[in-house]
Amino acid sequence: MSNKETEILDEKPIDFIRAKIKEDIANNKNEGRVHTRFPPEPNGYLHIGHSKSINLNFSLAKEFGGKCNLRFDDTNPSKEEVEYVDSIKRDIKWLGFDWADREYYASDYFDEIFEYAVILIKKGKAYVDSSSMEEIKTSRGMPTSPGVESPFRNRSVQENLDLFERMKNGEFKDGEHVLRAKIDMSSPNMNMRDPVLYRIKNESHHRTGDKWCIYPMYDMAHGQSDSIERITHSICTLEFENHRPLYDWLIKEIEIFPPQQIEFARLNISYTMMSKRKLLLLVQEGIVDGWDDPRMPTLSGMRRAGYTPEAINSFAEGVGVAKRNALVDVAKLEHSLRDHLNKITDRRMAVLNPLKVTITNYPGDQTEELEAINNPEDETAGIRKLPFCSELFIDRDDFMEDPPKKYFRLSPGNEVRLKYAYFIKCEEVLKNDSGEVIELKCTYDPETKSGTGTSTRKVKSTIHWVSARHAFDAEVRLYDRLFSVEDPASTKDGKDFRDVLNPNSLEILSACKLEPSLQEAKSEDKFQFERLGYFCVDSKYSSQGKPVFNRTVTLRDTWARINKK
RNA sequence: UGGCCGAUAGUAUAAUGGUAGUACAUCGGGUUUUGGUCCCGUCAGUGGGGGUUCAAAUCCUCCUCGGCCAGCCA
Known about the structure:
Layout: H1 3-10, H2 16-26, E1 35-38, H3 48-63, E2 67-72, H4 82-95, E3 103-105, H5 110-122, E4 126-129, H6 133-139, H7 157-168, E5 178-181, E6 196-200, E7 214-216, H8 218-228, E8 233-237, H9 244-254, E9 260-264, H10 276-284, H11 299-305, H12 309-318, H13 330-344, E10 346-348, E11 350-351, E12 354-359, E13 368-373, E14 383-388, E15 391-395, E16 415-418, E17 423-431, E18 437-445, E19 462-463, E20 466-467, E21 472-479, E22 506-514, E23 526-529, E24 533-537, E25 548-554, H14 558-564
Parallel strand pairs: 1-2, 2-3, 8-9, 10-23, 12-18, 16-19, 21-25
Antiparallel strand pairs: 4-5, 5-6, 6-7, 11-22, 12-15, 13-14, 15-20, 16-17, 17-18, 21-22, 23-24, 24-25
Helix pairs in contact: 3-12, 8-9, 12-13
This protein binds one RNA strand through helix 6, strand 6, helix 8, helix 13 and strand 19.
């Protein structure tokens, strides 16, 4: 390969954040140090949108020889719970990222942050406002018109210090006072109109218990926590862009280490939504079966559905990083998923909607063992034995009594291959009184045994099957997208996301016939059911010897597309 | 009638004044004991008007469109 070609191959596209970091390193900013953090609020489960941020922050640290902290932004005790902390840690680990011993909490810094507030008060840059919430709201003005200053704005430093101390000591009820920054009530940036820094909440905190009854707002805690941790690049989403001037103002006035905030567009995916608040509603209203329902875009839901961390990370890296609001096609996610699952999963035979087939010329009492390849993409996966006899099940989709032109599967008089077995031909169709097909009588050709190469005849289709005498019954759950519209979070005409649910997002099949080897499958084991899709043993409803399978994603289905037209 | 940010094929993302490229999707073909995978091909783009320049997706300007901001949420 020539030098030029090598260069081209090495030229991975660089996003604007990496470009900025490279520049900072070149300028020896922070002595060339790179330190990031992933800062979730423990008020819900992590979702696929977070995986972009997790991947970005941890990858950045790795690529530039730095570190990435895990920090919980737990400044609002009314919404945060230990359950969420635990799930978040589990999900990040599952994705494969490691914060080593750097597990931090904004609540660990409450003492420092309190002192920062005192510094601001002493500098005359913050004051205690005793206005009501309503008064503060009104006096803030509108984005297009300036606000007015609070009557409490010019309290003396001494009075502010005293009041703030008494706020801390629990002398007041919720809402009686707040601490505000003294900046500019006429600023065109609403965040600079004397933002609230501290509020009184007589509530227990999941970590600090009853130590505090005042809690810093996000704006008073986030940048300060970054600073304490010596974060060099504070990566966040676009909606915090308007907060950056305040972030910088506070850091400057408190005179502490200045991290650089950089904003990028959050991930949106078609046919789903990322709002934690709305996802919580789905859970609370019982629309889904918990945060880990396989239809949820949460990492725990996706894990239960059968997603792999590799698939999610490769997707997260593939969507790119930019500042434009984007809606990524869910097909891209599914592509990453299939791509990985195709390489790693063993193939198995499973019949979802069984149709009985009797091979009339196969000895009724005979059983033979046929060889099947576990994974054509991976030779080391080996082979297994499949029992075959005269009584089989095939999928109802693989038979049509009156097929259209391009239908290659089984139909009266037509011949197909049973994968890893023989050619069979449909000779007779048995129906019940209501005209429903209940059984097929077929003949097989002993010369066409799989692998022997003794037949030169060709068939246009190979279908999957199981032995009726050896298969076991199992429940299989077919999942589809939860929503029927591209962007369920922004519906029009007074509708909301609950009005655009896909009524067919879950179909439970309780009489599926699976090949025997599947019986001992363990929780979270993944397989490709030949010709159907990828399936994963459900971690919630399976029991020993009685696995329940979740469909992770279908195979690409060219026939379904042709058929649709 | 404020401020900030953004706009490149259907979708997402590159090109940092010099041949508009990649991935997904679509469509077509080849291989195939999965209508899968794999391989090959196809389709298709710089929001609009002015300006600077030998040369503009890129710089300037005006416009249009979209997002965010009026929590004691994050």
